[in-house]
Amino acid sequence: MKTEADENYLKEIYALQMEQTPVSTSSLAQRFGYSSATITGMLKKLASLDWVVYKPYYGVTLTETGTEIALEVIRRHRLIETFLVQALNIPWDRVHQEAERLEHSLSAYLEERIDAHLGYPSFDPHGSPIPTTTGSIESLVHNALGGLPVGTMCEIVEVNDRDPRVLIYLDQLKLGLRSVLEILHIEPIDGLVTILADGIKITLGPATANQIFVRIINAP
To answer: Do residues 194 and 200 touch, judged by C-beta distance below 8 A?
Structure first.
């Protein structure tokens, strides 16, 4: 029987595997705010269930079963976010935490009804792909806005939803999915990025720019 903690760990390992493989215990400790000893104890438990492969001083990777469980949780999470935005008109900066609480208790029946009600969406409100019922997920390679050169014309296709302050700030700037931007200037020392959006110049800090992922329309 999977616990809420089990699902949270598997989901986070899956997310971190997009950045590093194997995933280090220090990365998980930073993500959860737990001690390395606590993380190690949980990884040993997950390994005993054959959901991860864990090697001390090396790191952890998901097994096939662990990946399936992680994708199930991610699917429920992103469907809930989409439902909250589309059906209940909840702002996109509020839905992540709500979905974190609801994703563990959503039944398969309600999941299917929500999916059908929404018209079987492929992406959540932040532009992240929603895994299918068979456990497949669209593999997307997007560029972080902060890593592109001056003169690039691009379209916002995904925004990291972990920090609601970024989402609130983008709302205030009237920037969202499908906003078209041109990179005008990048400060060489502090990394400030100046963009042009709908005829308005906007300057973003590097921390914010690196949470925005774009599709390149024209490269310089």
So the answer is: no
Residue (of 130, 211, 219, 213) closest to 179 by Cα position: 213
pLDDT digits (tens, 9 = 90+) for 113-162: 999 999 999 999 999 999 999 999 988 778 999 999 999 999 999 999 99
Every domain of the chain and the residues it spans: 4-62, 143-218
Hey, what's the torsion of the CAs at 170, 171, 174, 180, to 10 degrees?
A: 50
Strands 180-186 and 153-159 come out as antiparallel
CATH of the structural domain 4-62, one choice from 3.40.50.300, 3.60.60.10, 1.10.10.10, 3.40.640.10: 1.10.10.10
Confirm whether pTM is higher than 0.85: yes
Q: Please state, in angstroms and as integers, the Cα–Cα distance from residue 167 to each residue in 48, 79, 100, 180, following that order.
A: 39, 19, 17, 17
Question: What is the CATH number that goes with domain 143-218?
Answer: 2.30.30.90
Cα(100)–Cα(73) distance, integer angstroms? 10
Note the pLDDT tens digit of each residue in 160-187.
Answer: 999 999 999 999 999 999 999 999 999 9
Contact 145, 194 (CB under 8 A): no
Distance CA 26, CA 36 (A): 7
